[in-house]
Design goal:
globular; 206 residues; alpha/beta
């Protein structure tokens, strides 16, 4: 744990340096994939365990609500981003975990909900969570798009995913923080594109 050995200024300096090392093209690709899902009416499914599971919930809530202007939330004509965190369906998780095994808790949901062209965002700091790997493997084989968020060495997920963002750092807390920090730029970028704001305002939009 970096915070156990580094004082606060050193920890924040390290965090800043690690963010600066990220592959910005991968972050942009993440935003592109989410926007394309909205544009094409596809679902976005998000999965993760532990802290990454709550990150999945956070991302799903933000993408569902905060891709619209507050004034548009009551507008029934507005196209919405179809997004679900598969970590939040307690009944599914408990039933599948009990009857089939914990490695099946996400893939069994995808078998019910997922379709070709949907996007799966898979979060695993180690990259080796069996339930994440099962979900990504199924998604790859059934025409879904997969994007992994990893840390450490990337594990098996880094090799299995179609796209992804890797935080090359052996500290789970900082890896998880960076995943969520960068996500908020992705969220804002998708919001700007959907609502034609900021750098996407005509005539500046691409």
């Amino acid at each position: 744990m970096l915070g156990a050995s580094l004082n606060l200024p050193s920890y924040l300096d390290r965090l800043n340096r690690e963010v600066g090392r990220l592959n910005q093209a991968d972050i942009q690709r993440w935003a592109d994939l989410v926007y394309q899902a909205w544009e094409n009416g596809r679902f976005v499914f998000i999965v993760g365990n532990g802290g990454s599971g709550t990150t999945a919930s956070h991302m799903a809530e933000d993408l569902g609500k905060s891709t619209l202007r507050p004034a548009d939330l009551q507008d029934e004509t507005k196209r919405r981003l179809k997004v679900l965190s598969l970590t939040d369906n307690t009944g599914w998780l408990l039933a599948v975990g009990n009857d089939c095994g914990y490695d099946q808790v996400f893939v069994q949901q995808l078998m019910n909900y997922g379709s070709k062209g949907d996007l799966v965002i898979a979060i695993s700091g180690s990259g080796n969570s069996p339930n994440i790997l099962s979900a990504v493997d199924w998604a790859n084989r059934h025409g879904l798009v997969t994007f992994g968020l990893t840390g450490y060495g990337g594990g098996k997920l880094k090799a299995l995913q179609q796209h992804g963002l890797h935080v090359e750092l052996d500290d789970m807390g900082m890896v998880e923080s960076i995943h969520l920090c960068v996500f908020h730029w992705v969220l804002n970028d998708v919001f700007a594109r959907i609502n034609r704001e900021g750098r996407y305002t005509a005539p500046n939009r691409p």
